[in-house]
């Protein structure tokens, strides 16, 4: 069995479109309950709970129990492995923008 790195966990977790939609709803709210996440999602409460478990294990959300309800909020630092990975490949974008700048100067001197 191989251990997943943080970037693997984040990418695998966000690869699922339903889970990504749940995460986006959490990001758009200060805090949101499982009940609120379930309403209008077209997904069962049990499925939402499973997606939340995956998001929590990947470090993307945190939970706060209050009585019989649990509230979720986004953990911005959970995206750090993805941001670091994308930053590493930022050189490709810088080169592309440089090439675009050169091309635009050739087209419209």
In short:
The chain is built from 6 helices and 3 strands, in the order ααβααββαα.
Keywords:
109 residues; alpha+beta; 3 strands; 13% strand; elongated
What this model shows, in words?
- A three-stranded antiparallel beta sheet has the order 1-3-2.
- The relative contact order is 0.15.
- The model has no long low-confidence stretch (mean pLDDT 89).
- With 109 residues, the chain is of the alpha+beta class.
- Helix 2 crosses helix 4 (45-57).
- The chain has six helices and three strands.
Biggest sheet: strands side by side, in what order?
1-3-2
Rg estimate, integer Å: 19 Å
Mean pLDDT: 89
| Poorly predicted runs of 5 or more residues | none
- What share of residues are in beta strands? 5-15%
**What is the CA–CA distance across the termini?**
58 Å
Task: Give the secondary structure arrangement, pairings included.
Layout: H1 6-15, H2 17-27, E1 32-33, H3 34-38, H4 45-57, E2 61-66, E3 69-74, H5 80-88, H6 90-107
Antiparallel strand pairs: 1-3, 2-3
């Amino acid at each position: 069995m191989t251990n997943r790195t943080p970037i693997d966990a984040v990418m695998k977790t966000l690869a699922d479109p339903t889970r990504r939609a749940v995460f986006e709803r959490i990001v758009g709210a200060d805090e949101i309950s499982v009940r609120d996440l379930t309403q209008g999602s077209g997904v069962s409460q049990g499925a939402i709970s499973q997606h939340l478990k995956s998001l929590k294990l990947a470090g993307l959300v945190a939970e706060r129990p209050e009585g019989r309800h649990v509230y979720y909020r986004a953990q911005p630092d959970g995206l750090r492995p993805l941001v670091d990975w994308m930053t590493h490949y930022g050189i490709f974008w810088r080169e592309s923008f440089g090439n675009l700048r050169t091309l635009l100067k050739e087209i419209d001197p």
